[in-house]
Write a structure and sequence with these properties.
About 35% of the residues lie in helices and about 20% in strands. It is of the alpha/beta class. Strands 1, 2, 3, 4, 5, 6, 7 and 8 form an 8-stranded mixed β-sheet that branches.
């Protein structure tokens, strides 16, 4: 059985490779995982090109939504992007927060951090910084962020509950997050659940939508809402690698759905940690 640490190392290695790929290659796969389809289409990511602050060099086509579009970022806000990649969402957040805002990107892949820092330096963005670290143990102080965003990243983390605990710690009282992620309706076939490559591709790492929203509520967040939801269709030439003919037919006529959701929630304005009894 693959351990959590082994899964994280698989993700780290895969996304080190992805950092060197172009957007077109990443978009023809599942989150850039390399499980490439011969069909010309974009599995998950939405179109960023019309958003203020968009930088093509920072867009690797790895997202599954547009969290910054829904994040209600104000001028002067401190914004943290979890799994910041080459910096795409950070640069869009900077356009919203302005020169008096502070943007911090966190990523645990050194190649991504290097690429993001080069993109920021090229544009002279002195209020955008990138820190290498694990989002289960963020390298930032508590009660720091007004807004947290993330795009197709939490599904890559085995300990999702730990990430939501960290988000709660790092947000200021009254702060909020907007996170795009992959969730399931129903159960994935066992072969997809166990395949490490599909984990790195964001699919087998996804959990059921109700479980995902339940973790958010469990960790003390309020005003939870789904801002956007769209179905994701994985094409046959990818699924064929993991499912036999009968399993593929059963999967396609079954009750399992794979969705991209953008979820909003707030940390209460005056509250201690969940379970402390003071909320």
């Amino acid at each position: 059985m693959t351990t959590d640490e082994q899964l994280k190392e698989i993700v780290r290695q895969k996304y080190s490779e992805i950092a060197l790929q172009d957007k077109e290659t990443n978009q023809s796969s599942c989150c850039g995982s390399g499980s490439c389809s011969t069909e010309v289409y974009n599995i998950m990511s939405d179109d960023y090109t019309e958003l203020k602050g968009y930088n093509p060099d920072a867009d690797l086509g790895l997202g599954c939504g547009l969290p910054t579009q829904f994040a209600q970022i104000k001028k002067g806000d401190t914004v943290i992007d979890l799994g910041s990649g080459a910096g795409n969402d950070c640069f869009i957040a900077r356009a919203e927060a302005g020169e008096n805002g502070k943007i911090i990107g966190i990523d645990f892949t050194p190649a991504m951090i290097e690429k993001a820092r080069a993109n920021a330096e090229k544009r002279g963005f002195n209020n955008v910084e990138f820190r290498q670290g694990d989002i289960e143990k963020m390298p930032v102080t508590s009660n720091m962020a007004d807004v947290i965003v993330s795009n197709c990243v939490l599904n890559l983390v085995p300990n999702k509950d730990g990430v939501f605990k960290e988000i709660f710690r790092v947000l200021k009282p009254g702060g909020h997050f907007s996170i795009s992620d992959v969730v399931l309706l129903g159960e994935l076939p066992e072969s997809l659940q166990k395949d490490a490559e599909m984990y790195a591709g964001c699919v087998s790492g996804a959990i059921r939508k109700e479980e995902y929203l339940g973790l958010i509520e469990k960790n003390g967040f309020i005003k939870i809402s789904v801002q956007k939801e769209k179905a994701i269709v994985i094409p046959d030439d990818i699924l064929d690698k993991y499912l036999d003919e009968k399993s593929l037919a059963d999967f396609k006529k079954g009750a399992t759905g794979i969705f991209s959701v953008t979820v909003y929630a707030e940390k209460p304005a005056a509250c201690c940690a969940p379970g402390s009894g003071c909320c």
